[in-house]
């Protein structure tokens, strides 16, 4: 049997969240106002996109990446912890994501690909939990408490994962997400984010080359 290299997409919102992958760009193509970045990774076929902040931007970027004929999509970036037990700098693998700004919860929960998530945990250890995608940062303690009470276990707020996951699911593309905690969602978020983003934002993306070497993620035998 031979190993087939899977074409992998990497999606983030801000350039800093691309981490060291930003040094691996061998080519780029402009499409619909965004750059598709083709990365030079040994034994891997990877295209990345820095899509911008928010669910609309994430959906556009995810659609462009899926259009490249992806076998799998990886979402990387930062998040704000909704539970105090989650330390700054800790990693959270997405078990399930939801768009939190709609009134109806049914049908909006999207589960990550379990085998891909487990493979990622081998190279970037961290718990699985909820990524709650919102249209704006969680700055109110009351809003943070309300969101935290709605979901069991580790959970954090972000602004892109659910939208990207929706696109991937509709296209039949397995997906996983890994985010790093830069703040505890609340009034201190802007200051904490600004302080921690430069040193932490690229940590999830930096784990991608090692992930792609794990048989369960970067290659399939046939």
Please give a structural write-up.
With 222 residues, the protein is an alpha/beta fold. 30% of the residues lie in helices and 33% in strands. Helix 1 runs parallel beside helix 4 (161-171).
Brief sketch in words of this structure:
The chain is of the alpha/beta class and 222 residues long. The chain has eight helices and twelve strands.
Question: Any chance you could write out the topology, listing elements then pairs?
Answer:
Blueprint: E1 3-5, E2 7-12, E3 25-31, E4 34-39, E5 45-50, H1 55-66, E6 72-81, E7 91-99, E8 109-111, H2 114-123, E9 128-133, H3 141-150, E10 155-158, H4 161-171, E11 175-184, H5 189-200, H6 203-206, H7 208-211, H8 215-218, E12 219-221
Parallel strand pairs: 2-5, 2-6, 6-11, 7-9, 9-10
Antiparallel strand pairs: 1-12, 3-4, 4-5, 6-10, 7-8, 7-11
Helix pairs in contact: 1-4
Features:
about 220 residues, alpha/beta, Rossmann fold, five-stranded mixed beta barrel, 8 helices, 12 strands, about 30% helix
CATH fold-level label: Rossmann fold
* CATH architecture call: 3-Layer(aba) Sandwich
How many beta-strand runs? 12
The CA-CA distance between the termini, in Å, is: 5 Å
Rough outline: globular
């Amino acid at each position: 049997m031979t190993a087939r290299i899977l074409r992998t997409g990497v999606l983030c919102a801000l350039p800093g969240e691309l981490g060291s992958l930003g040094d691996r760009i061998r080519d780029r193509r402009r499409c619909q106002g965004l750059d598709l970045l083709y990365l030079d990774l040994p034994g891997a076929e990877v295209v990345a996109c820095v899509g911008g902040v928010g669910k609309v931007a994430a959906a556009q970027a995810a659609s462009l990446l899926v259009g490249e004929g992806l076998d799998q999509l990886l979402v990387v970036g930062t998040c704000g912890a909704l539970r105090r037990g989650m330390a700054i700098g800790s990693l959270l693998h997405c078990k399930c994501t939801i768009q939190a700004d709609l009134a109806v919860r049914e049908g909006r929960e999207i589960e990550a690909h379990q085998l891909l998530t487990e493979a990622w945990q081998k190279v970037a250890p961290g718990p699985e939990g909820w990524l709650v995608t919102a249209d704006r940062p969680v700055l109110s303690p009351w809003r943070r408490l309300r969101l935290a009470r709605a979901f069991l276990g580790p959970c954090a707020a972000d602004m892109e994962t659910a939208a990207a996951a929706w696109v991937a699911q509709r296209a039949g593309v397995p997906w996983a997400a890994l985010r790093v905690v830069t703040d505890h969602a609340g009034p201190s978020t802007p200051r904490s984010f600004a302080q921690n983003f430069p040193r932490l934002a690229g940590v999830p993306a930096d784990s991608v080359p090692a992930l792609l070497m794990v048989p369960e993620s970067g290659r399939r035998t046939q």
